[in-house]
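thread: overnight batch results

M.L. [08:02]
morning all. the overnight job finished for the chain we discussed friday. pasting input first so we're all looking at the same thing
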Amino acid sequence: MASTQAGLVHPGDGLFEKVVNDWYPRLEERAYFVPPVHFNMVRYDTHHVGGQHSPHTDQVQVLVPKAPVKTKRKREQSVLMSDVQNDRTTQRLRACLRALAEEQNEVMFVLSQLDYGDYLGEPCYSAAVRCFHSPKDFVQEELKGKDVFHRGDFDILIFHREYGVLVGEVKTVGDNFSILDLTQKQQDAIVAKKVEQAVKQLNKAEKVLAHLLSDLQPPPRVRKSVMLPNIARSQLQRVLHNNPQLEEAVCQCMAVQRGVNPVDMCLCADELSNRNTPFDLTDDVMTKLVVWWRHVMTSQCPDTSFKAHYRSVVARFAGPATTIKVFSVSKPRLHVHTEGEAVSEIGRCFTQIILHPDQLEVLQRDQRLVHLLGPPGTGKTVVLVVRAVKWLQDGKRVTIISPRGFRSRAAACIIYDQVCNMTDSVVHHNLNRLHTDVMKDTSVKETLQRLAADKQGRNDEFFGVIDESSGNTDYAHPGIDNQFSKFCEELKNLFGDLLHLWVASTTKIDAPDWLDQVPLTESLRSPPVIVREIKQSVYFASDQCPQYREGSAPPPSDGPPVRRLYHTAGRDGHCGEDLGQCVQCGVDVCGYLVTDLRVGVKDASRPPRSAVSPDPLRYRDVLVVSAESSLTDDVTDPNTDEVVRPASGFVRGLRQGCVPVRVVKSGDDAAVEQMARMDGPDAVVAADSHVVSGIERHVVVLLGSEESTPFKDARFDLISRCSSQLVWVLPSSR
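M.L. [08:03]
and the structure it wrote out:
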């Protein structure tokens, strides 16, 4: 679609719309938020960890989150408490607007924290946007010679297909009132000042928008709202009542009609979720939020002319020529336009080598016998890896033990490969892997005999690390903990005081009391949206696993919302009760992966951008796992290559959309290790739930119910494999 003014064709519009059609394929059907998720301001200190005698250049570089500070010194790279408060408020506001859009089925495009100067500001598109109006060529007359009018930003900018434009000015005032010793009069004075600022900024934003969209005829209707997420309606009502001039300014700014309470046009704490549970909206809060939305937006007549311009306007404000910046430590400027880019970047953030200060302290203490205990995603494996690196750099022989047969093979493989990647190849001959199964007496006996034979003629110390020492819940067995404890005792009997052993588990196993228990409970490897799902596991209610605790520094992001898809047996092409055998479920997931997340899109097909953008999601970034039944691949006749038994319906559904799928089964050690290393062809991995311990993927597709029982708990075992986007295929409750 071309945008015209008096017969003038704007060549950039068509170019941008083509990209937008790819980036936002359901633009006419649903709400989009850009950036798709909010990225928090987080700073890290860099620490080098290595052997006692290893040079600085050989030591492992780890990131340690920096706690926010109240004030910072000049040139200090720190995050202020006020930044944290702003992040929390923005995140909460976006979550509520997203819930509103889903509840009301609104078709709209929501931009947050867009600087005026970033609109059509990409240098590589300067020729294509030359015919559009820019903030830089608009200076308010009374400010000439004093200030340029293009400085500023849109806190919240909503383009609604039916009702036009809404611009919101957000003020986080009130977030710290509870800890400040202020009188009501002092609080009200602060609120009044912030409301006055918001009115001025909204009026400015309206003029900027009028200039940027002046080529559209008729010009779109611009609505405005003061947004005070931490201020109650009653307090705002009192402030306006005591300040008649301010109340008049608010009414003029938001075009409040006679007889309408101006507070109804403002978004206050009453219409939003609780600050302590920002992602939980009660029915009462949703009702109030919908009332505000109707007051400010949908109660008025639709802007019928804007519907024709909707796609074109989105193409300008959220297309490749506009910079959508998010906070990033490692990259000076980071573009994140699409959901797939957000998922990729969040996955990268949560899979870095990050340690909390207490974990760093554990490594520096150099203890001999340690049991790391903590819920999934708290960095236990990372600590084991760094521990093994330190030993290896000190010239020690290190053994990585897989204690539960094929169930812990992937975890041991990951530790082995990460240690190799962090150390010089000249020391790799001192790194060994040992596979055993503590539930099988013959396997344990063979392992101990091998270790005893290796010990013959040597009096060396034994340095070993064991991950995933507690079994997955689907492998729960009354004697597994006891058997593992016996195995540890055998190691101690064999090596005595020469034993150095570090063990990690997620549940409270019956570990020997001579292992010093070190709790690790701050989440590091999964975003909070995933942690909230894991917390609903029966294992926390039964006190079999330590509870998560909040860290001193905020996470990089809350993460993308969980995407739930439903298996409607007997309807919409879905068949049977087994989700793994439903072809339509595979087709639905394929559509989401390819269309919404753009998995598998090659770099060559991406539009040029001068700023850095996250890596596109690959097929191998996706893990499919079923909590109900195993997924199978085609079985072929070895003589004719004909398929004698087709793959699971879900696998066939993915392949119908040309998504390559590799099925990994229990017992196929080579395939399990290839999955752990992310080797082989670029393909989605569909794996048995028994073999995914230790695996991390940016996208996890989970098939199964939300039911949590001691012997089948997908929340604890499988969701924790996700470092970014969870796609949950569920039996329909409708």
